[in-house]
Write a structure and sequence with these properties.
It is a single chain. By secondary structure, the chain is of the alpha/beta class. Strands 1-2-3-4-6-5 form a six-stranded mixed beta sheet. The radius of gyration is 24 Å and the shape is elongated. It starts with a helix and ends with a helix. It binds zinc ion.
């Protein structure tokens, strides 16, 4: 297996180098054009026009290089994916022990260029640094994850991307779905804060990556979770809880409120706040306005259910008990994106 390991490592290093090269050429192209435009006004003569022709030619040449690099980047990316899929297949369909590829991802840390450093966290390409012990924390949650949810996570590892693991802690962690220049698609969060997250270590990591999986599983054409069925199920469950709550005697109402105000009830608090229009809530929740945007309720619920399923049993139990209909829909969504390699296993073993 030693040879396989080395090959995959080299492959991933080349992949990163190509990505770095693409970014640097794009930057050069932009800055060259900008500088040329800045000269306009100062140079109003023939020389300016001649320079323009040179700039244009350079730009064309750089575009040609970019085209070739992008092809290489796609090719190496899919090669890495095939290798991973090849190694993932176990004849009995179980996850078994980690294969060489996953192990190499777990243990690998290297830098592409001087800054910033890249590494793999559970196989997810991560830009920036993570604190000591963090990989153990998220690995443990991963190991304790619900099998079917974990398979989906593993299936998407090479499509997920953490753009910044050192995002300022005073700014809101998020998944950026659009692929703007300067704010590329991926997750932005602070790994050090997530290590001591009062809602549970690793909560932000799995929550934000779940948003990315929700998006990636449709080929980035909207979110998988965005269905009326999921939305209705959430609303129905929320309204039923509100009714039950309203019929409770005051002392039991208070006990309930105390329970949902704890940090570990953050997902429940967020969803009950959304589905009762703020009539019931604990200590956590999004702003009212956030919930008025179509699909946000489903997206948040998907991320909460997903995160809880990745090694946070208490949260999962609470969500499944109080939002049983919605949990059923979530499970069906997870089922619908089961990697087909587990279905194909029977054919291969013939
Ligand atoms: Zn979220």
């Amino acid at each position: 297996m030693g040879i396989v390991n080395a090959d995959v490592t080299e492959l991933l290093q080349s992949w990163n180098n190509i990505k770095t090269a693409i970014t640097s050429i794009e930057t050069t192209k932009t800055s060259m054009t900008r500088k040329y435009q800045q000269l306009n006004g100062e140079w109003k003569d023939k020389k300016y026009k001649e320079l323009g022709d040179v700039v244009q030619e350079c730009s064309r040449a750089l575009n040609e290089i970019l085209k070739i690099l992008s092809k290489g980047e796609k090719f190496i990316g899919s090669l890495a994916k095939s290798l991973q899929e090849y190694d993932n297949v176990n004849l009995d369909g179980s996850m078994g022990s980690d294969n060489a590829f996953v192990q190499s991802l777990r243990s690998m840390t290297y830098s592409a260029g001087e800054t910033p450093s890249y590494q793999y966290c559970l196989g997810v390409l991560t830009r920036g640094n993570v604190p000591e012990g963090y990989l153990n924390v998220i690995s443990e949650r991963h190991q304790n994850g619900e099998t079917r949810v974990r398979r989906v996570f593993d299936h998407f590892t090479n499509q997920m991307l953490i753009q910044d693991a050192n995002y300022p802690p005073n700014q809101t962690a998020h998944y950026a779905p659009m692929n703007y220049e300067g704010h590329r698609r991926g997750v932005y969060y602070n790994a050090t804060s997530d290590m001591t997250n009062p809602r549970g270590a690793g909560t932000t990591y799995f929550h934000e990556l779940a948003h990315m999986i929700d998006h990636a599983s449709t080929g980035y054409q909207g979110n998988l979770s965005n269905t009326p069925e999921f939305g209705n199920a959430l609303m129905q469950d929320g309204q039923r809880i509100l009714q039950l709550y309203n019929n409770l005697p005051p002392d039991r109402q208070n006990a309930f409120l105390t329970r949902i105000r704890s940090d570990s009830a953050h997902s429940f608090s967020d969803l009950i706040d959304a589905t009762t229009n703020g009539q019931l809530h604990g200590s956590y929740g999004h702003l009212r306005e956030y919930w008025t945007r179509s699909g946000n309720l489903q997206a948040e619920a998907f991320a909460h259910f997903f995160e809880a399923s990745m090694g946070s049993e208490d949260k999962l139990e609470m969500l499944a008990n109080f939002f049983p209909t919605a949990f059923g829909v979530f499970s069906a969504l997870i089922e619908s994106i089961q990697p087909d390699q587990y279905v194909r296993v029977l054919e291969r073993s013939r």
